[in-house]
């Protein structure tokens, strides 16, 4: 086990003997890592999970064995909780940490502790005054390669540390997909506190407090009007024990995460992405032999670390060893170090004062980047629906934005139902336009909010996906939540509900049967052989139809094909399996024409179905697929031409792919993991080998999608060749 990395500013805290009673606040993605680690720790008693969503809290508590699921922080003290792990968005850290400390509960917070130095200082002082533990999960300080680097630095291997160079160049899935609602995009400086605190925490451990900094933004883009994002940064620092340089780039196609320490007698370089460490020291030999030794030694060290990582992955996959990937180890050891110190009455690692110094580094890096959030109109409380109101659920998605814009352009009264006000359609945030919309903040399952949106409305377009990872969550949100929307539409007197499903609800493999998929209510007759998303869409369609048949609600189900256009990721899964962002493995040989469709054309069809006169489309399930005569292989080849990158399409027969999937399944089962047998039916369906007619949309809605091959390529593929910086 690696030696603990300890901060000596906080005196040991006195607490009763015995296991620490712990709760986790927040039940999102990062909370699962905390819960998994805590569940396996003998030092803690996992008492509760707290989340504003009761279903999320209950689900997490059941999965990880917590005794209680609560929705209010105030309940934790009454349950005897001594320390709460805070796994919520960063903008909530200060208030929730303060509330917990004032209620007598210690805190172990996800990074960053705060978004400003003065707030971090206030929390550190409050914890000290209350005699309560306050630690921060700067897990990159426990990254295995960094731990090994620190051991060699402390051993004096490279002499006195003089300078540190950091490179952090990473992709951002949300940026590629045009999903700008994440907290890190809401203000220009947020990316520093979301991503840069990882290397900054390492710099703080190596160099101590920051004294001065010079920061430059090398590339800036506008995500939406008034919403700026700095993609590339360069900064230089002077700290107490040396100097540093930092280069950061986000949304980059090639990942590079390195930290190089230059000392008076040598250097060390940690490759954090690959969990590798190599170094060079002075020797007594002549230069020619010294140069050989430098290269040979680095090669030996890199080869050793690469083999260790491969062995660790193999042993874990086969069930013969513990999980040892770098991210999980960093999380595990950071959480474990905090609780071992707390239980043993020792000094806390990464305590509030250390976190304060990391916040000072982050503030120095952010510099004069605006701390203000992008302007959001002051939307009034929504009044009653106006005459002929159209309600759009999910109006800030990449199709939803287009739908809202088209409805507004046609003079319709529109209610946009969104979970948050960030990243609303660009037209809405322009001065003077917000009055054209009712904005209701709600989500599937929010009875009061949905009722407020739908009461008095005439029609509704349901674009909210409600996806999840488990079938239980998909059933609850996507299926039952959508059925409840239909019932609320009926209760509110809504005439027509347009539900946006997907061709994923259908079986699209070619088994030698029909040569064409027509519009019908038929979904895949073997849903259990499909993934939860496909199964959920099929089940949601049937649940909605049952409500419509019972109540008389006008229902139209629309199933878009493979939707492309601005706002969709370049590496679309409809083209194939992207094993890397420039290597696409075909769902088959990749030579069949795919049911592609432009996002703009989908929006046109949804608006047309919503506003159609009479009942000509009610009770229909309508496929929305164009045929620009483009295969997966064609699309990847065009992406290569447009981007100038080395992109490759790898055709692979379905039989070979299935054999490889079965091989993976065997390895996982041997390793003791409970996974289902790979579905060949789903693999065949992903190939999209059977074409669609999409006649109903053409005949009843006058739908004319772009099918000219060159025009389609210009609007869906070649757009990725445009400069973004």
Structure description:
Helices cover 38% and strands 20% of the residues. α12 crosses α17 (599-611). The longest helix has 31 residues, at 287-317. The protein has a seven-stranded mixed sheet with strand order 8-9-10-7-11-12-13. The radius of gyration is 28 Å and the shape is globular. It is of the alpha/beta class. A hairpin with a 4-residue loop joins β12 and β13 (276-281). The protein is built from 22 helices and 25 strands. Residues 1-9 have low confidence and may be disordered.
Unreliable runs, pLDDT <50, ≥5 residues? 1-9
Rg over alpha carbons? 28 Å
Distance between the termini: 44 Å
Largest sheet: 7 strands, mixed
How large is the count of helical segments? 22
What spatial order of strands do you see in the largest sheet?
8-9-10-7-11-12-13
Structural class: alpha/beta
- What's the helical proportion of residues? 25-40%
Counting copies of identical and different chains, the oligomeric state is single chain
What coarse outline follows from CA principal-axis ratios? globular
Query: Mean of the pLDDT scores?
Result: 89
> What is the count of β-strands?
25
| Beta-strand percent range | 15-25%
């Amino acid at each position: 086990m690696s030696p603990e990395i300890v901060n000596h500013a906080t005196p040991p805290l006195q607490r009763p003997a015995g296991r620490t009673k712990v709760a986790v606040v927040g039940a999102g993605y990062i909370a699962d890592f905390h819960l998994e680690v805590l569940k396996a720790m003998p030092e803690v008693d996992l008492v509760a999970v707290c989340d504003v969503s009761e279903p999320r809290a209950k689900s997490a508590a059941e999965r990880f064995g917590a005794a209680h699921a609560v929705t209010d922080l105030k309940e934790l003290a009454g349950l005897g909780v001594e320390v709460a792990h805070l796994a919520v968005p960063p903008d909530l850290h200060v208030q929730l940490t303060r509330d917990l400390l004032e209620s007598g509960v210690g805190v172990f917070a996800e990074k960053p502790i705060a978004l400003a130095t003065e707030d971090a200082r206030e929390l550190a002082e409050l914890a000290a005054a209350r005699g309560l533990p306050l630690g921060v999960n700067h897990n990159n300080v426990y990254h295995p390669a960094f731990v090994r680097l620190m051991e060699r630095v402390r051993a004096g291997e490279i002499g006195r540390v003089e300078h540190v160079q950091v490179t952090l160049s990473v992709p951002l899935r949300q940026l590629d997909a045009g999903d700008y609602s994440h907290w890190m995009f809401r203000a220009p400086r947020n990316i520093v506190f979301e991503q840069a605190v990882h290397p900054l925490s390492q710099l703080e451990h190596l160099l101590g407090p920051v004294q001065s900094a010079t920061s430059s933004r090398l590339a800036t883009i506008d995500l939406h009007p008034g919403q700026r994002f700095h993609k590339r940064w360069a900064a230089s620092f002077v700290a107490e024990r040396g100097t540093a340089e930092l280069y950061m780039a986000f949304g980059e196609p090639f990942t590079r995460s390195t930290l190089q320490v230059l000392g008076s007698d040598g250097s060390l370089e940690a490759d954090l992405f690959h969990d590798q460490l190599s170094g060079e020291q002075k020797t007594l030999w002549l230069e020619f032999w010294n140069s050989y030794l430098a290269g040979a030694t680095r090669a030996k060290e890199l080869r050793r670390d690469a083999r260790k990582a491969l062995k660790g992955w193999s042993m874990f996959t086969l069930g013969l060893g513990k999980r040892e990937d770098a991210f999980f180890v960093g999380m595990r050891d950071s959480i474990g170090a905090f609780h071992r110190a707390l239980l043993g009455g020792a000094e806390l690692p990464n305590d509030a004062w250390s976190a304060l110094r990391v916040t000072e580094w982050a503030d120095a890096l952010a510099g004069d980047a605006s701390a203000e959030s992008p302007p959001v109109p002051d939307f009034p409380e929504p009044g009653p629906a106006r005459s002929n109101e159209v309600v759009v659920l999910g109006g800030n998605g990449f199709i939803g934005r287009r739908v809202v814009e088209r409805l507004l352009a046609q003079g319709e009264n529109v209610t946009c139902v969104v979970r948050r006000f960030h990243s609303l359609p660009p037209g809405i945030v322009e001065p003077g336009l917000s009055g054209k919309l009712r904005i209701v903040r709600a989500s599937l399952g929010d009875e009061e909010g949905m009722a407020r949106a739908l009461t008095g409305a005439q029609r509704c377009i349901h674009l909210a996906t409600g996806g999840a990872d488990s079938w239980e969550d998909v059933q609850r949100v996507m299926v039952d939540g959508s059925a409840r929307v239909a019932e609320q539409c009926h209760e509110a007197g809504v005439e027509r509900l347009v539900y946006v499903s997907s061709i994923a609800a259908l079986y699209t493999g070619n088994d030698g049967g029909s040569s064409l998929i027509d519009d019908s209510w038929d979904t895949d007759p073997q849903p259990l052989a499909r993934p939860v998303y496909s199964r959920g869409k099929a089940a949601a369609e049937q649940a909605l139809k049952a409500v419509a048949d019972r109540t008389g609600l006008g229902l139209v189900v629309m199933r878009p094909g493979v939707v492309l256009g601005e706002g969709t990721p370049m590496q679309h899964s409809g083209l194939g399996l992207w094993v890397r962002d420039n290597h696409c493995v075909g769902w088959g040989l990749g030579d069949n024409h795919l049911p592609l469709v432009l996002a703009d054309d989908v929006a046109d069809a949804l608006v047309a179905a919503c506003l159609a006169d009479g009942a000509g489309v009610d009770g229909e399930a309508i496929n929305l697929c164009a045929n620009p005569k483009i295969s997966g292989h064609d699309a990847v080849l065009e992406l290569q031409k447009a981007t100038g990158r080395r992109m490759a399409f790898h055709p692979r027969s379905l039989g070979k792919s299935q054999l490889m999937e079965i091989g993976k399944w065997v390895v996982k089962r041997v390793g003791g993991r409970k996974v289902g047998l790979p579905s060949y039916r789903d693999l065949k369906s992903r190939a999209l080998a059977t074409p669609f007619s999409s006649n109903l949309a053409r005949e009843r809605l006058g739908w004319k999608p772009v099918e000219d091959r060159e025009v389609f390529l210009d609007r869906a593929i070649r757009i990725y060749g445009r400069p973004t910086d």
